[in-house]
Amino acid sequence: xxxxxxxxAVGQQGPVAYLSGFGNGFETEALPGALPIGRNxxxxxxxxxxxxxxxxxxxxxxRASNERSWLYRIRPTLQxxxxxxxxxxxxxxxxxxxxxxxxxxxxRWDPIPIPDAPLSLLEGVxxxxxxxxxxxxxxxxxxxxxxxxxxVDEYFYDADGELLFVPQQGALRLWTEFGIIDIAPxxxxxxxxxxxxxxxxxxxxxxxxxxENYGGAFTxxxxxxxxxxxxxxSRDFLTPVAAYEDRDASSRMxxxxxxxxxxxxxxHSPLDVVAWHGNYAPYKYDLRRFSPVGPILFDHADPSIFTxxxxxxxxxxxxxxxxxxxxxxxxxxxxxxxxxxYHMNVMSEFMGLIYGRYEAKxxxxxxxxxxxxxxxxxxxxxxxxxEAASNAELQxxxxxxxxxxxxxxxxxxxxxxxxxxxxxxxxxYGAYGTQLKKHFDPARP
Length: 445
Ligand SMILES: O=C(O)Cc1cc(O)ccc1O
Ligand SMILES: [Fe+2]
Hints:
The protein is mostly beta strands. Helices cover 4% and strands 35% of the residues. It folds into two domains: 197 residues, Jelly Rolls (Sandwich), CATH 2.60.120; 126 residues, Jelly Rolls, CATH 2.60.120.10. It has a nine-stranded antiparallel sheet with strand order 1-16-20-13-10-15-8-7-28. Strand 17 and strand 18 form a beta hairpin. Bound molecules: 2-(3,6-dihydroxyphenyl)acetic acid and fe (ii) ion.
């Protein structure tokens, strides 16, 4: 574990202290009295701090979607702002990205092994698909990441989108301006657009999925008739307490902006926020706390019942991105074909598997792998899953030790040349449906 940083300063809480709730107006200070009381911008801030507002929504957004925080920091972000050089963002693409000549059909990848080369998060992001247009704040990038080295004196923020981390192997420690977040497989974290961080390894090389959401900030879906409980509950979302670095060292700052990476030299750590308050802040969530609600008599419900977070578009009910999981649950429906049905969807579906087996694809879709079922392309259970589920004895059955997820977007997804050319791209997958047998017999109703 790479831990070259000094112990937390006096008054700071430990690295695993969190505040509970989703989108609350939080307040937290690492030094007593660092937060101004009853105002945001006193003439002089305590401890000689600068006040800075970070707005994640337009100033005039309605209250329910208005997001901003006030940061009390050693130096304002503007002071970090030296001369930037533009860098090639490598395999991290941004929509609209060049489209490879795609076959029309489903696509799937085996897990891509973690490379041996030293890769920080910034060097280890590989875009699988992009959708929409980042500069119009619509769509998303679906990436995999490989991390084999911690960022040391390197910092980063993404202006193009918010970052939803879904670890699949290995834990990460996210040192953010707002405090420290630890995540491991089974958990997720969201770093809002514009929030600076550096990413450290905790227990060896790491691999996972990353959704870069160019659109409206992720929020909890409405529950409608489900009422006030179940699905993802607000209290299980955890935001870090304030923690800062007062570190003068030759460092680099990277900004992902307009699809490129920009870099400048710094002589200090920009993770220098001593206190903050507001509702625009990073958070984590343990996906195993999701309380699934589903059909308890017959039929298979739409996967929207498993939405953890949704990024709304301007059209009601039409998500820019939905983050949906397929967690452990009981299957109890009577006289029902229980796995997902055969379907075609106006939304496009990027899936990953964190652990276990996915019921519609018991073979070939393995932990660390990915699949893409694009706009209006047919998909559903493979032949083995169909035959097994059509003939199974329908006892209550627990789908155990499994966790898959989907980034589902209203936009068609374009596949990167890297993904299409990867050795792990399953070239024969597109035709898996042709193995489904004809069972029709007009003499047998
Ligand atoms: O295609 C998939 O495997 C994801 C999915 C699951 C489900 O239960 C219903 C619809 C759907 O798209
Ligand atoms: Fe689907």
